[in-house]
C-alpha cells in the first residue's frame, strides 16, 4: 500500500433531519449504499459557533461491531443514546433502538447466536439485544461499565468497570451476577484468553492477567521508548512512557493488540511557546503506538504472555488513537485516529518489525486514508478481509472504506438529530494537522491522563481533570496563576499547543461545553460503615479537612501552602478516587500515601493524631466523593 496523506481539517457536512419520537425505526429502503451516494459535500463556513442542542459527550471510541456472519453492523451511539442495527446484506438500517437519557452506550460484543451485548457507560447496565426481534433486556451491573467480553465456551459475559469491578453474568438475563471481583480502578477492556481474562487499565495502559480463580497473576505494561538507547544513529535521548490505552482487542490465535499513547517523560523545556508540538514527531509530547502481546510459542497459559519487542508499534503520524480493528486473518490492523480524522492501515508484521516514530512517516506497506470530509470518525471494524466500516458520530452514518487503498466507496446514513458542535470538535481536533496533540490527548474522555509532566522551570505537575464543572474551580493550574478562562486558553492552547485563540463567541461556547462534561459515576464503597465513619472524620473541625474542601465542588478555590513546598491551588475532591497519583507532583501513588511523608503533614489537615484504622476510614469516605 502506498502511503497517502489527507488534506487539512475541512468544514463539517450538512446535517440529517431530526427524527421525532422514541419508537423503534425500521426498514429504511430509501437509504441506499452504493458507489455514488452517501458522501456529502462540505457547506459554507458559518462564523457563528455551532452548538448542539444536546451537548455531545467526549469521544470514547470502540462503539462499532460487525457480527461474525457479516450480516449486521451494530453501532452504539453515545451522542444520541441509541443503538443502530444495520443490515449489511441488504445495505439498509434494520432498526434504531432508543435508550434512556444519558445512558451513553459504549462497547459492543457479540453473544450467543443472534444476540449482542452493549455496555451503557453512564446507565450502569448492560443491554442484551435479540437481533431478530430487536428486543432489549437491561441488566444492572456497575455504575460505570466499560469493557465487554463473551466466552462462548462457558456462555458467560464478562464486564470490566471503571470503578474496578469485574463482573461476570450468565446467559440467564434474569439471574444475578455469577461473580464480582474488585480489582484496581480504571478498568477499560476485557479479553477472554483460555481460562483467564486479560483486563486493560485506561490511563496506565497496564494489562492485568486474571486467573480462573480471580487472582491477578501478572501485570504487563508496554515498555518505554528510548530512541538513543535502542536505535543506532539516533541522537534524540528523550524518553516516552506508555499511557492512555484507548482500546485493547483480541488477536486470532491468542494475545491482544493495544492501541495507546506514549507520553514524554523527559523534562519539557521551556514550558512556553511550542513546547507541546513539533513538525518532528519525535519532538512532540505525545504520539500513537500499538503494543502486541502474544503467548510464548511453546506455552498456552495466559500468564506466559510476553511483549513482542521493546518499543514496537510507534505510529509517526496522526493524533488521538481511539480505536483499533484486527483483520479476520490477524495479519493487519486498522487504527482510527479521531483527532486527525484518519486511519492507519498496516500489517501487524510491520508494527512488530520497526517503530514508525523513527521515520515520522508511514512505511511503504502502510496506508493512511483521510476520513475528515465525510464526517467525524469514532470507531472502525473490518467487514471482510479487505473492507473497513467506519462509524461517524456527525453526521451519523457508517462509511465503507477499502483496506487496500483507502478508497471510500459509499456510506449508509443513520437517521438522527444533529450533534454538530464546534466546541466538541475543538476539544478533539488538531486544527487541520497544525497540532500534534489535542485537548483530549491529555484529557481523554474529558478527564485526565494520570501523567506527571516535568515542566521546566515549574517542575513536576500532575494533569488536572476538566470534568465535573471545572469553571467553578477557577483559578486554573496548580499554581492558581490563571484566573480566567481566556488566559488559560492563551497559555495552553495558543502558547504551548500552537493553536489560534478562538473568538469570543467560540471561546464562550467552548467553556460552556467543557462545563457539561460529567465526573465519572462512582462505585459503592466496599465497606459502607467505614465510609460513614470517614465522613464524620472529614467533617470534624479539629481535623480541618472541610475547611478548604467545602461546598458543592469540595474546594474553596484558594491557593494555599499546605506544607508541600509553596502555595498550590486547592483541588476539587469530586471523583478523586479515579485520579491517582495524587498531589501536584504525583508523589502519592495512593490516597493512603497522601497521608504519608509527601502530604504536607498537619498543615494539610490535622491527621497525625489519627490511628491507621481511622486513616482507612477517611480514605474509604474520600473514595465515595
Automatic annotation (TrEMBL):
Signal peptide annotation: 1-20
UniProt cross-references to Gene3D superfamilies, sorted A to Z: Cytochrome c-like domain, YVTN repeat-like/Quinoprotein amine dehydrogenase
Entries under SUPFAM superfamilies matching the protein: Calcium-dependent phosphotriesterase, Cytochrome c
Domain Cytochrome c residue range list: 529-625
Region (Disordered): 34-59
Keywords tagged on the record: Heme, Iron, Metal-binding, Signal
UniProt-listed InterPro entries: Cyt_c-like_dom, Cyt_c-like_dom_sf, Cytochrome_c_Peroxidase/MauG, WD40/YVTN_repeat-like_dom_sf
Keyword Heme in record: yes
A Pfam family per the record: Cytochrom_C
Protein name per Swiss-Prot or TrEMBL: C-type cytochrome
Amino acid at each position: 500500500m502506498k502511503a497517502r496523506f489527507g488534506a487539512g481539517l475541512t468544514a463539517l457536512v450538512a446535517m440529517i433531519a431530526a427524527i421525532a419520537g422514541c419508537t423503534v425505526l425500521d426498514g429504511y429502503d430509501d437509504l441506499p449504499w452504493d458507489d455514488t451516494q452517501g458522501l456529502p459535500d462540505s457547506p459554507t463556513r458559518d462564523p457563528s459557533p455551532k452548538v448542539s442542542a444536546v451537548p455531545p459527550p467526549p469521544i470514547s471510541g470502540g462503539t462499532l461491531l460487525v457480527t461474525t456472519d457479516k450480516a449486521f453492523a451494530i453501532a452504539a451511539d453515545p451522542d444520541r443514546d441509541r443503538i443502530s442495527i444495520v443490515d449489511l446484506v441488504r445495505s439498509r438500517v434494520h432498526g434504531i433502538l432508543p435508550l434512556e437519557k444519558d445512558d451513553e452506550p459504549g462497547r459492543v460484543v457479540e453473544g450467543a447466536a443472534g444476540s449482542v451485548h452493549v455496555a451503557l457507560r453512564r446507565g450502569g447496565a448492560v443491554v442484551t439485544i435479540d437481533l431478530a426481534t430487536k428486543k432489549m433486556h437491561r441488566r444492572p451491573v456497575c455504575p460505570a461499565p466499560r469493557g465487554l467480553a463473551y466466552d462462548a465456551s462457558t456462555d458467560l459475559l464478562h464486564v470490566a468497570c471503571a470503578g474496578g469491578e469485574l463482573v461476570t453474568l450468565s446467559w440467564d438475563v434474569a439471574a444475578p451476577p455469577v461473580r464480582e471481583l474488585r480489582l484496581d480502578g480504571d478498568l477499560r477492556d476485557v479479553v477472554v484468553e483460555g481460562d483467564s481474562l486479560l483486563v486493560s487499565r485506561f490511563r496506565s495502559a497496564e494489562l492485568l492477567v486474571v486467573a480462573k480463580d480471580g487472582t491477578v497473576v501478572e501485570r504487563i505494561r508496554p515498555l518505554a521508548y528510548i530512541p538513543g538507547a535502542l536505535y543506532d544513529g539516533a541522537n534524540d535521548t528523550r524518553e516516552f512512557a506508555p499511557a492512555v490505552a484507548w482500546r485493547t482487542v483480541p488477536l486470532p490465535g491468542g494475545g491482544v493488540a493495544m492501541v495507546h499513547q506514549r507520553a514524554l517523560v523527559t523534562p519539557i523545556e521551556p514550558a512556553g511557546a511550542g513546547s507541546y508540538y513539533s513538525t518532528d514527531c519525535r519532538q512532540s509530547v505525545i504520539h500513537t503506538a500499538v503494543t502486541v502481546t502474544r503467548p510464548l510459542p511453546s506455552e498456552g497459559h495466559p500468564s506466559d504472555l510476553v511483549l513482542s519487542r521493546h518499543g514496537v508499534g510507534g505510529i509517526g503520524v496522526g493524533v488521538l488513537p481511539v480505536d483499533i480493528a484486527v483483520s479476520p486473518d490477524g495479519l493487519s490492523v486498522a487504527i482510527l485516529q479521531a483527532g486527525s480524522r484518519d486511519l492507519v492501515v498496516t500489517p501487524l508484521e510491520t508494527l512488530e518489525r520497526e517503530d514508525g516514530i523513527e521515520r515520522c512517516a508511514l512505511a511503504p506497506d502502510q496506508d493512511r486514508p483521510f476520513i475528515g470530509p465525510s464526517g467525524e470518525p469514532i470507531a472502525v471494524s473490518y467487514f471482510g478481509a479487505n473492507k473497513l466500516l467506519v462509524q461517524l458520530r456527525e453526521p451519523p452514518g457508517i462509511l465503507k472504506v477499502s483496506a487496500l487503498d483507502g478508497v471510500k466507496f459509499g456510506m449508509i446514513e443513520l437517521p438522527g438529530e444533529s450533534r454538530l458542535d464546534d466546541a466538541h470538535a475543538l476539544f478533539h481536533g488538531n486544527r487541520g494537522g497544525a497540532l500534534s496533540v489535542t485537548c483530549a490527548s491529555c484529557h481523554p474522555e474529558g478527564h485526565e491522563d494520570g501523567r506527571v509532566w516535568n515542566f521546566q522551570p515549574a517542575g513536576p505537575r500532575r494533569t488536572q481533570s476538566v470534568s465535573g464543572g471545572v469553571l467553578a474551580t477557577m483559578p486554573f493550574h496548580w499554581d492558581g496563576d490563571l484566573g480566567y478562562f481566556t488566559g488559560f486558553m492563551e497559555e495552553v492552547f495558543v502558547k504551548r499547543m500552537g493553536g489560534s485563540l478562538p473568538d469570543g463567541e467560540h471561546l464562550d461556547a467552548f467553556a460552556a461545553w467543557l462545563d457539561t462534561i460529567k465526573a465519572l459515576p462512582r462505585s459503592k464503597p466496599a465497606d459502607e460503615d467505614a465510609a460513614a465513619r470517614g465522613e464524620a472524620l472529614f467533617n470534624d473541625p479539629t481535623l480541618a479537612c472541610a475547611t478548604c474542601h467545602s461546598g458543592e465542588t469540595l474546594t474553596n478555590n484558594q491557593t494555599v501552602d499546605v506544607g508541600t513546598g509553596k502555595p498550590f491551588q486547592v483541588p476539587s475532591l469530586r471523583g478523586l478516587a479515579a485520579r491517582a497519583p495524587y498531589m501536584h507532583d504525583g508523589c502519592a501513588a495512593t490516597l493512603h500515601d497522601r497521608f504519608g511523608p509527601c502530604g504536607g503533614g498537619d498543615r494539610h489537615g490535622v491527621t497525625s493524631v489519627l490511628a491507621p484504622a481511622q486513616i482507612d476510614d477517611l480514605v474509604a469516605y474520600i473514595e465515595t466523593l
